[in-house]
Structures are given as structure tokens and as C-alpha cells.
Amino acid sequence: MLKGIPKILSPELLKVLCEMGHSDQIVLSDGNFPTESMGKDCIVIRCDGHGVPELLEAILEVFPLDTYIEKPVNLMEVVPGDTVETPIWDTYKEIVSKYDNRGNEVVGNIERFAFYEKAKKAYAIVATGEKALYANVILQKGVVVD
């Protein structure tokens, strides 16, 4: 155990977050995301039993978002014609706003299949037990500045 590190961040996840460099991306996937097939060429970390919001909050305590791009946080767009509600996105925006002074402006949306293509190129994918639909999020790492 370490002081000041959220307990939800496992040693494996902390190691990956530390290894990641500027512009590397990490996916926080919901329970329906095809994590294993998308993660064939990247690191897959299992965090079953945890939701995306609690992991997002913990990660952003130690993980800087990229300031060199407008949208370092991206959500999977709802497929046209799908009537699914996405209240979890509001939760994500509240969390992101606590850790990035640009607020909601850093959150974008990516079409479903374009999201899959980005996920395949991510440094890591975190598989969660999140039950909300369209709850997938990609974070792009920035630079630690003291």
C-alpha cells in the first residue's frame, strides 16, 4: 500500500499509468466492450467489479490529460437510431472538470467503429464491470508539470 494513491488503483494499473508517455491512450471499457478482441496488441487490465466512474476519478488523481489537443477525453457516440440514454456521460464530465481546468471542453465523442479502431491502438484497455451502456472512454495522457 502507498500513501496518497487511491486504493482502487491496482499495482498493475499503477505500473501501466506510470509507463505511459505523452500522447499514449488508455481505454476504460464498460462490461459490454469487446476488451479481449480489441486488446490483442495492447495491455489488458481486468478491473471487474468496479465501475468506470470510480476508476476515472482515481486515475485522474495521478494522470495528467494532454493539453496539446482539444479533446483528450473521448466517449463512444450513440449509434444513430439507438434510443439509449447516457446519463453516465454527465458523471464523467463532472469528474473530468475536477481535474482539468478546461472543464467539459476536453470531452469529445467518437463514432462507434472509429472508437474501436482507436481502442486497438491504445497502450492499454481496462476492462470494468460497468453496466451503463455507451460507458466507454479513452483518455490521452499529457505531461506532468511541477
UniProtKB/TrEMBL annotation:
Coiled-coil parts of chain: none
A Pfam family hit: RbsD_FucU
Domain of life: Bacteria
InterPro entries the record matches: RbsD-like_sf, RbsD/FucU_mutarotase, RbsD_FucU
This protein's UniProt keywords: Isomerase
GO molecular function: isomerase activity
Catalytic reactions of this protein: alpha-L-fucose = beta-L-fucose; beta-D-ribopyranose = beta-D-ribofuranose
Alphabetized PANTHER family for the sequence: FUCOSE MUTAROTASE
The protein, known as: Fucose isomerase
Source organism of this protein record: Romboutsia faecis
